[in-house]
Amino acid sequence: MRKSLTKTELIRYQPEIDRIFKQGKSQSAKGLKIIVRKNEIGWSRMIVIPVRHYGTAVERNKIRRQIKEIWRNEKERLVSGYDYAFVVYPGNAYDYNLLKQVVVTLCKKAGVLLSSEASSQLTY
Q: CATH number of the domain at 8-108, out of 3.40.367.20, 3.30.230.10, 2.115.10.20, 3.40.50.800?
């Protein structure tokens, strides 16, 4: 399986982002929120959205890169066919390993992380 993050796996257009926020289901932890919505295409896509007052541009880009890398490494464990929006809030400075634990935990809470025994399918 290809592990790189391609352009087709990124959500780039505002109507698609609005649809995720209106129709998606969300789970949150301190400083991070995930919104998940089933899409009509066969693969998963993602976007990372730091809120307006999240640090400097360097910090916003760093958190985007970190979450994209976590998602890229964990995407084979996630249910395919969903759109994921990660909203990052200021205040918590996670190191990479703690951020990875938080992202995986949020995916479990949202029900999109595949279990090792059987794959669970969601209907949103």
A: 3.30.230.10
Phi/psi at 86 (5° precision) = -105, 120
> How many C-beta atoms surround the C-beta of residue 5 within 10 A?
15
Please give the average per-residue pLDDT across 73-90, as a whole number. Answer: 91
CB 83 within 8 A of CB 37: yes
Could you tell me which of 63, 23, 62, 57 has the C-alpha nearest to residue 40? 23
Helical (H) or strand (E) element with 44: none
Q: For residues 22 and 37, give the distance between their C-alpha atoms in angstroms, rounded to a whole number.
A: 9
pLDDT given at position 75: 85
Q: Is a pLDDT exceeding 60 seen at residue 34?
A: yes
Q: 40 vs 30, 48, 101, 122, CA distance in Å?
A: 31, 20, 29, 13
Question: Can you read off the two tokens belonging to residue 7?
Answer: 């352009």
Compute the distance between CA of residue 93 and CA of residue 3 in angstroms, rounded to an integer.
27
**pLDDT at site 124:** 46
- What pTM, to 2 d.p., does this model score? 0.85
